[in-house]
Design brief:
The protein has 350 residues and is an alpha/beta fold. 33% of the residues lie in helices and 19% in strands. The protein has eleven helices and 16 strands. It has a nine-stranded mixed sheet with strand order 2-3-7-4-6-5-9-10-11, sandwiched between helices. The model has no long low-confidence stretch (mean pLDDT 96). The chain binds threonylcarbamoyladenylate and magnesium ion. Magnesium ion binds next to loops.
Length: 350
């Protein structure tokens, strides 16, 4: 299959190009499209066969459910049985945007989408190309991130092409994703909402809107054994570049000396070392392939750059990556969650 990349600079005047992708969705095909978080791999959420194709193309484990993307609140009512007040309030405040809300699903949602769960995660993306695509298709679109399973999520059309070339007919190119990490996944099926995956909508923002929120303990700690998880996505290796990642956490001075010493040790052992640093620290390292995620006090900037940098280390062909931890506040929690998972929770605490 030949994969075409269609650049969309103005969704309104290029509605014809988007129409073509929308038609593919209606016909039961899988297409990649931009969202404000990361690129998605979309299919008609109401078509079990089309959804099945997503799992094949992505190489995704069958028990990991997909998020359903909508462009109109009425679609949400169709996909769920009952929407509690608090959920409506959050949607009113944060949609369109990087928040996925999990509720009991309606009979309309095929089991293929939810991987057998009786709940469904829904979000209304903010990217104009995503919204136009959903509008034109006239159906909700199920979409995971458009990477091959296990790889860092794609934040540009080129990342998608790297992973999906020859596997899907069309990639809509809507430029670099703003947020850069996936949506916040919030389970609202219980008494108190629980963040299963941190993202662009922070715990602080949800707390302020509702007065309460919990963070699932597995956001920053690995699962032990066969314990039951609330979100199947927590079980899998994620966001991993080819080289192993070690996440180094602690006081900035200690962190810099640790990374310098470890870099020297690895180089002596004949290894190519990647260092994932920040603007404030990058000059403190004398050797290795050094990349900065941005200003350590601007977590949104760090989030926007993280996955692109992880993919860059693949190009640089490093053998090991030493990554600096950042503060787990605001969007910083999402950044740390992705880094901890990319590292398989190999975290050095100083
Ligand atoms: O920003 C995003 O959310 C992107 C863009 C494309 O919208 N999508 C995305 O999808 O990140 P994916 O499939 O890569 O991640 C979905 C996550 C997984 O961890 C999955 O386990 C969880 O959401 N999830 C989906 N439905 C769920 C449900 N009903 N219950 C619990 N977890 C669910
Ligand atoms: Mg993903």
């Amino acid at each position: 299959m030949k994969t075409r990349v269609i650049k969309i600079t103005d969704p309104k005047s290029q509605s014809f190009d988007i129409k073509e992708a929308a038609q593919l969705i209606v016909d039961g095909e899988v297409v990649a499209f931009p969202t404000e978080t990361v690129y998605g791999l979309g299919a008609n959420a109401l078509d079990a066969g089309a959804v099945q194709k997503i799992f094949e193309v992505k190489g995704r484990p069958g028990d990991n459910p997909l998020i359903v993307h909508i462009s109109d609140i009425s679609q949400w009512h169709d996909l769920t049985d009952e929407i509690p007040e608090d959920a409506l309030l959050l949607a009113g405040k944060f949609w369109p945007g990087p928040l996925t809300i999990i509720l009991k699903k309606s009979d309309r949602v095929p089991m293929e989408v939810t991987a057998g769960l009786n709940t469904v995660g829904v979000r209304m993306p903010a990217h104009p190309v995503a919204r136009e695509l959903i509008n034109q298709a006239g159906v909700p679109i199920a979409a995971p991130s458009a990477n091959r399973s296990g790889r860092p999520s794609p934040t540009t059309a080129l990342h998608v092409l790297d992973d999906m070339d020859g596997r899907i007919p069309v990639i809509l190119d809507g430029g670099k994703a703003d947020v850069g990490v996936e949506s916040t996944v919030l389970d609202m099926t219980g008494e108190i909402p629980v963040i299963l995956r941190p993202g662009g909508i922070t715990p602080e923002m949800i707390e302020e809107a509702l007065g309460h929120v919990r963070i699932d303990p597995h956001v920053m700690s690995p699962l032990d054994g066969n314990k039951k998880v609330r979100s199947p996505g927590m079980k899998y290796i994620h966001y991993a570049p080819k080289a192993p990642v070690i996440l180094v956490r602690g006081d900035l001075d200690k962190l810099i000396s640790y990374i310098n010493e470890e870099t020297q040790r690895q180089i002596n052992a004949g290894k190519r070392v990647g260092i994932l640093a920040t603007d404030q620290t990058i000059k403190s390292y004398g050797q290795g392939e050094r990349l900065t995620m941005g200003d350590r006090h601007k977590p949104r900037e760090l989030a926007a750059n993280l996955f692109g940098r992880l993919r860059k280390f693949d190009e640089l062909d490093v053998d090991i990556i030493l990554a600096e931890a950042v503060e787990e506040k605001g969007e910083g929690l999402a950044v740390m969650n992705r880094m901890a998972r990319a590292a398989g929770f190999h975290i050095v605490d100083l």
